[in-house]
Amino acid sequence: MKEKTWVSGSLSPYQLHDITHRPDWENLIVWDAYLNNMTSGFMVITGLAWMAGPGYFTALLPWAITVALAIVVVDLILLIFDLGDPFRFTNAMRVMRFTSPLSVGVWGLASYATCVGFAVGLYWLSYISAHTTDFLNPYIDILDMLTRMFVILAFLGALVVICYKGVAFSCTSQPGVKNARWLTSFMVADAMLMGLGVYSIMAAILQAPEAIAYLMLPTLILIIARCIAFYLLSLDLNPRAKLTNGQMENFWVKFSVYILGGVIAFGCCFIGPFGVTVAGVIALVVGLIERYWIISTTKKI
User: Fold this and answer.
1) Residue 5 pLDDT class (50, 70, 90 cuts)
2) Is residue 258 within 8 Å of residue 290, measured between CB atoms?
3) Helical H runs in 163-268?
4) Does residue 297 register a pLDDT over 90?
5) Closest CA to 20 of 99, 96, 94, 102
6) Do the Cβ atoms of 75 and 39 come closer than 8 Å?
7) Cα dist. 287→119, 189, 221, 296 in Å?
8) What contacts 146, CB < 8 A, 6 or more positions away?
9) pTM for this one?
10) Which of the two residues, 133 and 35, has the higher pLDDT score?
11) Closest Cα partner for 211 from 72, 46, 94, 91?
12) Could you give the residue ranges of the DSSP H alpha helices within 83-100?
């Protein structure tokens, strides 16, 4: 007789399932955290630029949300592998529990991905319809309204994701990182800076120098904020990093953050739109280096 499930006193399917494997702390979770922060930071920047910035950001909105969707899809795939078992992901989606970091993280990221997916689908549906057929022309205004609504919802979802470090950074239960009190502050500042980096690169490809120039001041502010947040984070991680990494490795990581991602990137911003784009590229490179260093502190000694 098949055993009953979800009844008081009986085992759930998740408990009967095989034990999940240990995630790849060395590589997989780095890229998971990296893309998670990148897409959420990029969506927050996209939303702010569209709602509060000059009109030329509106023309970039369709491309921005499409890029954000592409990044979050890859991140969701990595997240499932990072959790060790796809069943763990679906189990976390079964019930929304505000006291469970896994549940909040999965629901926040999935909700954000769903909203930005609807925004992208509705926009390109209306765009294709307007240029190929008259079938949906009477509904273009409705589609546009729905697209704007889902962009706003995606922006709100990205705010949740950008402030959350749990399921997308599940090594936070490991030695060293679990005591990093400034990790969330660092993630917010760094994700926003990486979002600006992606936006400036996209604007450069689409030949929108006015938009890049407008991003100069926020880029300068976030470079300073990221350096300060990383310094505070490193105070928490230094004791552990000295045990898990070599002295030169720790030195080059901090050199990359403060000199390459700080002084050099800061100076590039004063060259013009091209310099802001270069600073954005540097922010993305340094962001990956930072996460490899943070994850390295979880290694066994």
Assistant:
1) very low
2) no
3) 183-205, 209-214, 216-244, 247-255, 265-268
4) no
5) 102
6) yes
7) 28, 11, 16, 14
8) 118, 122
9) 0.84
10) 35
11) 46
12) 86-94
